[in-house]
Amino acid sequence: MIAKIDQHLRTQGLLPWLDTTAIGVGRKWRDEIQNSLQNVRCAAVFFGPSGIGSFQQMEVYGLVHEMAKRRIDLLPVILDGVKGTPGMDGFLSEYQWIDLRAHERAPGLRELVKAVNRANEKYL
Question: Superfamily for 2-121?
Fold first, then answer.
């Protein structure tokens, strides 16, 4: 699902950073993720049926730090298979999410593109 979202964003002229495609073989993935967090203009946090794992939680902490320091936009996104409202604890519970479950996918993708474009406009 994330790869399809990445592909859709690219067809809209956006350049998402996705760890599975951006981190080369033999690179230290923790360093690469940490470095990328310092350069993003906005970030999506994806909630799947399994929630967020412990390492993803650490990434969220890094994003919240960058958000406070540089005022980047943080975009919680709900994926297919999530029942009800996901457990967005702490800082993430304050943000309006984007719903990409099957019944909301098309409008959700439009909203995601719009949110990323809006974040990019702040840097022009």
Answer: Toll/interleukin-1 receptor homology (TIR) domain (3.40.50.10140)
